[in-house]
Amino acid sequence: MRVEGGIIVGMKASSTDLYHFDQIMQHVGPSLGASSGQDTLFLQQLASGMAGGVLTSAGRMSGGWAPVQAGKADEALALQRRLGRLMGALSAEESPGPLRHALELIEADTGESALPTPPLSDALKQRLARVVAALRDSGMALPEAA
């Protein structure tokens, strides 16, 4: 959320509740400058009046969301659906642990955390390994190892 002069002028919407998001947008309109924080609903939130997005996947997938920027809704929706399992796994336990583990699976250097992160469950580690392998097998362009 961004506040200027005591007035909310921007927010990041990370909830999966599209109805709630739509209600907010109906009341405040596009002047709020809302940004998506939910990869799995990015297109739907854009359609509801969102100004842009701060997406987990965008920072590590160069050109990944280019279909959105090019106005190619069908391609963008297909991409969003391909990433659905990954995004679900990345938010299954306390962040940033799942993202860091997924990056380790593709051999991307994640560096050290500023704060300690709780260990991931073995079930989530296995789930992430299956999801990353399936994306690789499908030809999805994953980030290059650093």
Structural summary, described in words:
The protein is an alpha/beta fold and 146 residues long. It has helices at residues 18-28, 42-47, 66-69, 73-82, 84-90, 97-105, 122-137, and strands spanning 2-4, 7-13, 34-36, 52-53. The protein is 43% helix and 10% strand. It has a 4-stranded mixed beta sheet.
Question: Mean pLDDT, as a whole number?
Answer: 78
Percent helix, as a range, is 40-55%
Straight-line distance between termini: 32 Å
Q: In percent, how much strand structure appears in the residues?
A: 5-15%
| Biggest β-sheet: strands ordered side by side in the sheet | 1-2-3-4
Order of helices and strands: EEHEHEHHHHH
Largest sheet: 4 strands, mixed
Shape call: globular
Question: Can you tell me the residue ranges where pLDDT is under 50 for at least 5 consecutive residues?
Answer: none
Which class of secondary structure composition applies to the elements?
Answer: alpha/beta
What Rg, in angstroms, do the CA atoms define?
16 Å
| Total E-strand runs | 4
What count of helical segments does DSSP give? 7
Topology summary:
Layout (H helix, E strand, L loop, with lengths): L1 E3 L2 E7 L4 H11 L5 E3 L5 H6 L4 E2 L12 H4 L3 H10 L1 H7 L6 H9 L16 H16 L9
Parallel strand pairs: 2-3, 3-4
Antiparallel strand pairs: 1-2
Helix pairs in contact: 5-7, 6-7
Task: Label this structure with key terms.
about 150 residues, alpha/beta, 4 strands, about 10% strand
Summed up:
The chain has 146 residues and is of the alpha/beta class. Helix content is 43%, strand content 10%.
